[in-house]
Amino acid sequence: MQCDHESEHASAAKRAAENMPSEEEVEKVAASFKAISEPSRLKILFALRHGEMCVYHIVAAVGSTQSAVSHQLRILRAGGIVKTRREGQNILYSLADEHVVAVLELACTHLKCKL
Amino acid sequence: MQCDHESEHASAAKRAAENMPSEEEVEKVAASFKAISEPSRLKILFALRHGEMCVYHIVAAVGSTQSAVSHQLRILRAGGIVKTRREGQNILYSLADEHVVAVLELACTHLKCKL
DNA sequence: TCAATATATGAATAACTGTTCATATATTAC
DNA sequence: GTAATATATGAACAGTTATTCATATATTGA
Predict the structure, then answer these.
(1) Using a CB-CB distance cutoff of 8 angstroms, which residues of chain B are in contact with residue A59?
(2) CA of B36 vs chain A CAs: smallest distance (Å)
(3) Mean pLDDT of chain B
(4) B111 pLDDT more than 70
(5) Predicted structure pTM score
C-alpha cells in the first residue's frame, strides 16, 4: 500500500500525525463518549435535563431497575458526566456541567430529533 | 424503594418520563456516540480534522493496520460521522459536518485537553 | 486482458460490558 | 441500638465488539 498524491494529502497526514493527542488523552475522550453512548445511560441524562433527581425518581423516569440504574450512575459519575450531592437519605444526581447539555443538544440537532 | 420528597423532585421526574424520547431515538443518539467512543475511531477523527485523507494516510496518521482502519471507517460512515468521495483508486474520507467538529471540540474543552 | 494498487469484508477469537441477583453500606426515625 | 429506607456493589452470565488473517472487489495503466 502506498499513496502517490503526496502533494495533496501528505501534508494533512503529516500534520495529523504530529498533532495526534497522546494515547492517554484519546482514551480520556473516548471514555467520556463511551459513558454517554449506551441507551440506558442516555435515558438517565435525558431525564436529568429536567432537573436534579434522586435514584428512585431516575428509576421511575427511565423505567429500569434500581440496581441497573445504580451501576450506570457509577459509570456516569466516574466519567464526570453527572455530579451528586447528598440530601439526607437520598443522593441527588444532576448533569455535571453545561458541556454535557450542549453535547446532548448537538447530537439531537445532528440527528434532527426533537429533545 | 419509595421517595417522599414529592414536592421537590416528583415534578421533574414526571416531566422527564413524559418527555423521554422514544426508544428508537435514544438508540440513534447512542449509536452516534458509540461510533465516536472508541480510541481507534477517535484517532481517525482527530486525524481527519486536518483535512480530507485517503485510507493509506489515515493508517499512517493513526498508526494501525489497513484492515482495522477499514473496519472502523465502515462504522464511522454508517453512523454518519464521516463521508467519502472517490478519486481514482482512492477513497477520500472527511468529517461529515460541522456538528462532528463541534462535538469533538466540546469534549476536549470539557476535559481541558488541547486539540 | 493482465498486473498492480487501494480499499473492503467475512470468519474467528479475545476482550469488554450491561443486566440480574444477592448482599452490603449508609442514613434516619424510633 | 434496631428497623426501615436509599443507594451501592461483587459475581456471574449473556451479548457485543475490536482486531487479525485471509481474501475479495474495484480502479488504473500497460
Answers:
(1) 1
(2) 7
(3) 90
(4) yes
(5) 0.89
* Other Cβ atoms within 10 Å of B96 Cβ, number: 18
Length of chain B: 115
Residues β-bridged to residue A87 = A90
What digits encode the pLDDT tens for the residues A55-77? Answer: 999 999 999 999 999 999 999 99
pLDDT of the residue at A96? 96
Q: If we measure between CA atoms, which residue out of A61, A58, A53 comes closest to residue A70? A: A58
- Residue-wise pLDDT tens digits, B44-69: 999 999 999 999 999 999 999 999 99
Residue B12 has pLDDT above 90, yes or no: no
Examine residue A88 and state whether it is found in any structural domain, yes or no: yes
Q: Measuring from the CA of residue A89 to each C1' atom, give the nucleotide at the shortest distance.
A: C27
Q: Is residue B22 part of a domain?
A: no
Residues B48 and B95 sit within 8 Å (Cβ to Cβ): yes
DSSP letter string, B12-30: HHHHHHHHPPPHHHHHHHH
Count how many domains chain A has.
Answer: 1
CATH number at residue B62: 1.10.10.10
Range of the domain at B67: 36-115
Give the integer Cα–Cα distance in Å for A81 and A77. 6
CB B38 within 8 A of CB B72: yes
